[in-house]
Design goal:
Two copies of one chain form a homodimer. Chain A has 413 residues and is mainly beta. Chain A is built from eight helices and 21 strands. Among the domains of chain A are: 160 residues, Sulfite Oxidase, Chain A, domain 2 (Alpha-Beta Complex); 129 residues, Sandwich (Immunoglobulin-like), CATH 2.60.40.650. The longest helix of chain A has 8 residues.
């Protein structure tokens, strides 16, 4: 066949060197590729692995004292900067934990799920019994309340790595509740997990009867241990903590139950003492993002994720001038309710210092606020949200500063 | 909290013992659970693994002589009987191979993709350059021509395990073709992979300009080595062989090019010598399916997958009486064009011998045929299709026979 000569590119005409994007690039540059792991052909056939050139990993956030070998409770952050599309690889799904890395090792044959409280017929289900109810499979994000940008966060993995998105399969909780017969006067359900501290959460009965899943499947296979094997609750659009992992019972009750998990939701400060359940519209640019460096002026694919607890993403806008002007980004994935949605934009960087931000509007018409707007709402100084502890979800706009040398940093800093 | 007493179940009232469904069940019963693999906490944090209770694996089909340690070319079958939802876990995606298990080990920094032939500007792209074009992420199935039921196939993994479904991310081939400038008179494109035999395939230019993807992402991460790392072609709805893995070049040409891969498509028999490209509407029941056994009469969740190369699945019907009567199944996943779609039905088995079949209708109104209907179309005896070699796609209805003792078998046998 004919020559390999490559002539001028129309699309990339403004480009200098190639952009540093994705997992592959984090292995490129100076560092040699890791040697291939030697696996037998038999193992390769049975269960394939990723390329030895792909080295994207999660990292831990150390926080409170815990009994594991780290000695600290930690959450595990998903590498959003390396991901494409909307599905998070199950091996890289974020992990929120109460007790460090200690994951209950539950034998699925011994697993039981109890549904009781204000019901006509309290019932206990084995995993096999749960699978004898009609299943549904839906793509939803899960996001931890702790997913908030702070000034000392350098990368998007740090600012936003506590959200992931999977196809979840399970039984609608409403089907099981109807099986049990919910009694008059019931208003809330309390779900409890099997981990050492018995994490629990209260959600309104109306939500439980709507779209919650008692899920056993994640991205086509059984839920991973770190994400609740064999069964977890999925509460689409609500804070992660309500998506109880290692689900062992749900009690139907007549009022909100305070639980261990409420450390994350109840504040003594009356200004922020209200109960927040559902994520607002949110988005973040994953390229270019903190810690990355643009090799030079040129044409880039700006990309990121948007989502909302209120339903489907309707619009994502991007500003490259600190929020003065906004331009619609393209939606570059399939769009599902309460699911990550991939957006992108062809962006030409001339080499000037600038600030990049994205703004999500959801199907309810809710618009993602700036941090300053949210602080003003609470009548607080502009840095209010990220200098305080846990009081509510942070769905504010993430600004990234691009310096003249191409380096990208968190503009909160 | 209160008692665990479980009273009568309304929904499962017809049920005896629980149904044997899914990956977990294949590990249950007599066999003890595999011991957990000891991994360091550091490794667990970086990259999580599935539960040691989940043992679902792919199996190889040995066929022609090949240079790997098996000594035979083989395809690798995905365990459809264990899967839920529509996403195939990347580690369990089926693998079609020309040369056994020998997977090219391509350094993504050295990777080049050449687009040439009848174009104004032949261009060669690095992986990083491909990522500087706008990306799209879409859920599509891939299915090998070899995916056909034979009388000696016992399980759904054997009859249908050469199809899988992923979220693919990449650049539309049309974008790259426009970048190169397609010349007048061009009608076909030939794509070639980097494997030892240089697998290649010809597809119409109209398809190349429509919805084909030069893909680098699969289920949120880089494409797996066995599925074409770092770049493969996705030709939605077309036979698997056109979805060239380890894509190294595409040549724009004016007529169909015969290639090595045509062994699977061209026949000397004039009755079947026509070129078939696109999958028709297809479906299969994955539970109950061959090799499984119903523990006794009762209420079960019949479930399966449906798909079509012609677009979205519009309807799936199920017959439990050998095709005399059909009833609409429920669609239990999100529906995408040229993608697996999960269907299900609550089914009460009274203990009688019966035959189960599913039938897919797609958005074009195409209806999945029986094997006898297809044979009649070719004026051949009813067992025609599965006793012959490769002549075209087999999208015929799969019948499963349920015996009075609950055992399920391939009704072709």
């Amino acid at each position: 066949m004919d020559s390999k000569k490559a002539s001028r590119r129309k699309f990339l005409k403004g480009g200098a060197a190639a952009a540093a994007v994705g997992a592959i690039q984090s292995a490129s540059g100076q560092t040699p590729a890791p040697a291939p792991v030697k696996r037998s052909l038999k193992d390769e056939v049975a269960y394939g692995e990723r390329s030895h050139y792909v080295t994207s990993v999660r990292v831990a956030v150390l926080e409170r004292p815990s009994p594991d070998e780290f000695g600290l409770t930690f959450h595990v952050l998903t590498p959003l900067q390396d991901q494409v599309g909307i599905i998070t690889p199950s091996s890289l799904h974020f992990v929120g934990t109460h007790r460090g890395a200690i994951v209950p090792d539950i034998d699925p044959r011994e697993y039981r799920f109890l549904l009781h409280g204000m019901v006509d017929r309290p019932l206990e289900f084995t995993l096999e019994e749960l699978k004898r109810f009609p299943s549904v499979s839906r793509i939803h994000f899960v996001e931890c309340l702790g997913n908030r940008a702070r000034a000392d966060h350098k990368t998007v993995q740090q600012t936003h790595g506590l959200t992931s998105c999977s196809e979840w399969t399970g039984v609608l909780l409403s089907v099981l509740l109807k099986e049990c017969g919910v009694q008059k006067g019931a208003n809330w359900v309390v779900s409890e997990g099997a981990e050492e501290v018995k994490g629990a959460g209260s959600i309104p009965l109306a939500k439980a009867m709507d779209d919650c899943l008692v899920a056993y499947g994640q991205n086509g296979e059984a839920i991973r241990p770190q994400n609740g094997f064999p069964v977890r609750l999925i509460v689409p659009g609500f804070e992660g903590i309500y998506n109880t992992k290692w689900l062992r019972r749900i009690k139907v009750v007549d009022h909100y139950y305070m639980t261990y998990n409420d450390y994350g939701h109840i504040s003594k400060d009356p200004k922020v003492a209200g109960l927040n359940l559902q994520w607002g519209p949110k988005s973040v640019i994953t390229f270019p993002s903190g810690g990355q460096k643009l090799p030079g002026p040129g044409v880039y694919q700006l990309t990121g994720l948007a989502w909302s607890g209120g339903g489907a993403v309707r619009k994502v806008e991007v500003s490259a001038d600190g929020g003065h002007t906004w331009k619609d980004a393209e939606i570059r994935s399939q769009v599902h309710r309460m699911a990550h949605t991939r957006f992108g934009m062809t962006w030409k960087w001339e080499g000037q210092e600038c600030m990049l931000q994205s703004r999500c509007t959801d199907e309810l018409g809710q618009v993602q606020p700036t941090k300053a707007q949210l602080a003003k709402f609470f009548n607080q100084p502009p840095d209010y949200y990220h200098t305080h502890g846990v009081q509510g979800t942070d769905n504010t706009i993430q600004p990234w500063r691009v310096a003249a040398d191409g380096s990208v940093s968190n503009a909160f800093a």
